[in-house]
Amino acid sequence: MSDLKTPELRETRLRSILKAVSWRCVGTLDTFCVSLAVLMLSGATQGDIRNAVQVSGGIASVEVLTKIILYYFHERAWMRVRLGRGER
Fold it and tell me: In sequence order, which ranges of the chain are alpha helices (DSSP H)?
């Protein structure tokens, strides 16, 4: 058995930003679909699909910005946590 050490992998700020944006694309699509379903099934838009799409789009638009920012800081905070990383 070889005692080779793997080089320490480090997350750059750019990688954290790209991960945040790609995850938000998935999350925003989910938010849009869920809010559209809730609006249509609850009757809040009285069956008006255009209105439901417009409101769902507004919800998704706002949350995409706030959650990218929150995820970035969450990711950077977790970089400081050693739990589960093994030895350095």
Answer: 13-42, 49-78
